[in-house]
């Protein structure tokens, strides 16, 4: 029984991977914000980086222009149980130009990350301007603090009914492919409930921003 379930999940994963690879091969990428992935790439549409001394605004900026991030959770896989485990997740904090600061995700119970979150909702999300043209244009190595990146800690929680329309619109407008992901995978909307923020945007160590400062900040 357990075996059958496992085989079934593997078949579904294989199908998903197959269709993902297929769409990579046949269609141009349709997401906004990633490397070669859309409008933020163009210097004319990528808004300027806020002043580096305003770390809260810089953090909001990085979240807003990011189409994806690496989310670390605590693994439930036998081989690495209890150890950190990071995976790439597509995300959006709002339609272009109207970011809320809240990183929204479209998740499936088939994902390893979701298995982990079901046992322990704590997670850490990293997003970097390395996914935009910014770092390459300025010749900043991704590990350089000048290639601005941020780390957010918190818990991943499901989005409630009231917030669902905004989460859905935010994600689907920047990741149009999501609309076609197989409904059999039981996708749901989730978000990171941010408790701690670190900003690496210059030499001298990470800057700490509180969630209050972060949500209070505005970017144009
Ligand atoms: C849904 O979530 C939002 C954002 O966290 C919150 O403001 C709102 O009160 C929640 N609504 C319900 C019905 O729980
Ligand atoms: C979000 O995080 C805050 C700060 O830790 C906490 O007080 C709040 O209960 C959390 N919200 C939910 C819905 O888990
Ligand atoms: C919120 O933003 C306003 C306007 O930028 C600023 O004056 C105020 O100090 C900020 N408050 C916090 C808690 O960051």
Automatic annotation (TrEMBL):
Protein name: Cellular repressor of E1A stimulateds 1
Subcellular location, record wording: Secreted
Domain CREG-like beta-barrel: 50-216
InterPro entries: CREG, CREG_beta-barrel, Split_barrel_FMN-bd
SUPFAM superfamilies: FMN-binding split barrel
Main location: secreted
Gene from which this protein is expressed: CREG1
Family: Belongs to the CREG family.
Record flagged with keyword Kinase: no
Leader sequence residues: 1-31
Alphabetical keyword list: Glycoprotein, Secreted, Signal
GO cellular component, one term: endosome
GO biological process: one example: autophagy
Organism: Cavia porcellus (Guinea pig)
